[in-house]
Write a structure and sequence with these properties.
With 180 residues, this protein is of the alpha/beta class. The protein is built from seven helices and five strands. A five-stranded parallel β-sheet has the order 3-2-1-4-5, sandwiched between helices. Helix 6 packs parallel to helix 7.
């Protein structure tokens, strides 16, 4: 059972990714190197949502979060996304705050559905967080995986970045289960 658990760890984390659906808003969660913004660009071009929310770099220094938002915004604008459809969350410092702040934005803008774009091994923890934050609200979210370069759920231990991501996600998942 331990072997199945270890070798299936990548699949377990990524299993809750969903196909995109039409939404009022799309959010590219912070903390990535560009795959999330690129997936948002693809979905925006296909008409999945008219507005895009960019969240700040998780665990980033509060004074540099705006710069992180800026390069992702610049990428999207340079690729044809109109600047006026972009929204920014520079307050969030972790995944929980991203969900809470997105929920509050949706309430204030009277939006009903959001596409949440993040990396595949992030899906399990996001599913738990967003379900908790959105519970009973009538608001809906759909978790959509980015096309994370070199991600291999079957052989996640073969590369250092994948192994680090998987180990970090299990630690964060345990933390969130206890903390929230």
């Amino acid at each position: 059972m331990l072997v199945v658990g270890v070798f299936g760890a990548g699949y377990y984390l990524a299993a809750l990714a969903q196909l995109p659906v039409k939404a009022d808003l799309m959010v590219a969660l912070g903390g990535d190197k560009g795959a999330r913004a690129d997936r948002v660009l693809e979905l925006y071009r296909k008409g999945f949502a008219p507005k895009v929310l960019l969240t700040a770099m998780e665990d980033g220094h509060s004074k540099t979060r705006a710069a992180y938002l800026d390069w992702r915004a610049r990428y999207l604008i340079d690729q044809g996304v109109p600047e006026q459809v972009l929204l920014y969350d520079s307050r969030s410092a972790n995944s929980w705050e991203e969900a809470v702040n997105t929920f509050q934005l949706m309430q204030s803008m009277k939006l009903d559905r959001v596409l949440v774009v993040s990396d595949p091994p992030h899906m399990r923890r996001l599913s738990w967080i967003w379900a908790k934050v959105f519970s009973g609200s009538g608001k809906e979210y759909t978790l959509v995986a980015s096309d994370m370069e070199d991600w291999d759920a079957e052989h996640w231990w073969r590369t250092s970045p994948n192994a680090q991501f998987v180990f970090a996600e299990y630690i964060k998942l345990a933390y969130y289960l206890v903390q929230h």
